[in-house]
Amino acid sequence: MADLPLLEKMDSRLSFKQQFERVLLIGEAWRGAGILDSNPVQSGCPHHTYLTLQWGNPNSRRNIDLDENVLDNLQPPKCLKNLSIDQYMAARFAIWMNNVNKIFNLEKIKLTECLECETLLPFGQLPFLKSLYLHNMPKLKELPSLPSKLKRLEIDGIGWTTLNFCSNSNPIPLESLGVFHCPNITSLPLADEIRRLAALRYLSIITNCPNLISRGRYREVETTNNCHLMLSNLWISDPSVLLIEPLRSIFSLKELSISLSDELVSFPNEAEEWFLNITSSLCKLNYIHLASLQSLPSSESLSSLQELYIEDVPMLRELPNLPPSLKRLIIIGDCHPELKKRYREDGGSDRHKIAHIPQYDIRPR
């Protein structure tokens, strides 16, 4: 086991953090540690359920063949439930990772900075996989079929043009989907695919998906009442995405967050009209880290809105008319001096506009 540098072993978690150049007889080292899948007792099945493999800087020169050999030889026990691979630079994953019997019990997979990888594992054959995270893997060609138990999927920095993860007619129990920094994506799941996403409640589409906005908003898409997403929480950075199906037809949203945009100055008229879809459902509205935003859409018709949260929106000078239902108003962080002046307790010119709100907290930085 001494051949494995910087081995961290704590409870059920096992982590290798090194570039692995000093590892020689890797398979024998695993066996000597009682980790290889030789038998249920020696392999430490009650203990080694988490495995993290972290290589060095992906920008540094590396022997790709060595990366492949290392991963091929690191065959964990079948009891492994959580697998994380970071900065692996070969184009293919290990042979054992394509053997379903070896990874049968996985519940969570996280693949990060695997810049050369082109294909993924047979996720659809993993009956217990519930969480899948794919971060900064620009050469991936496609997403394989998803497993029957998957509840959380996060895609960040992937080069796909579409999200085709509904490859069969079976419902997908996906509850949370995050799409981040995917500049090539041009469309969201539609029609028949939406029917299979009946469990989806949390959706995030954050930053740098320009093709989705420019192409998607003008597509003529036939929708029916039985293929609407039943989202409860939506996070976006560009409100124009609200004009794209299936988001254009949402009626059940409970919380909307618009965040992390330096370019957004105001809402398109069509996006303001979109708020009429959720007047009776939306309970919480968040505006966070919007450096250029100068005005908010009208919220007076949002009859169920109970909380308005504004953080770091420094160009906002005034609030729109607020609904009588509002119970809580929070404004914190970077704040325009005029906004602070308008709503101050000692005689602000617009203080009366928030007098009906039981709880308010205005704390500009």
Number of helices: 6
Distance between the termini: 53 Å
Category from helices, strands and their pairing: alpha/beta
Helix content: 10-25%
Number of strands: 15
Q: What is the H/E string?
A: EEHEHEEEEEHEHEEHEEEHE
Could you tell me the mean pLDDT? 79
List the uncertain runs: 1-12, 18-44, 215-226
Task: Kindly report the spatial arrangement of strands forming the biggest sheet.
Answer: 1-2-3-4-5-6-7-8-9-10-11-12-13-14-15
Report the principal-axis shape: elongated
Radius of gyration: 25 Å
Please report which band the strand proportion falls in: under 5%, 5-15%, 15-25%, 25-35%, 35-45% or over 45%. 15-25%
Folded structure, characterized:
With 365 residues, this protein is an alpha/beta fold. Among the domains are: 1-126, no CATH class; 274-290 and 301-365, no CATH class. The chain has six helices and 15 strands. Strands 1-2-3-4-5-6-7-8-9-10-11-12-13-14-15 form a 15-stranded mixed β-sheet. Strand 1 and strand 2 (13-17) form a beta hairpin. The termini are far apart. Residues 1-12, 18-44 and 215-226 have low confidence and may be disordered. This is R13L1/DRL21-like LRR repeat region domain-containing protein.
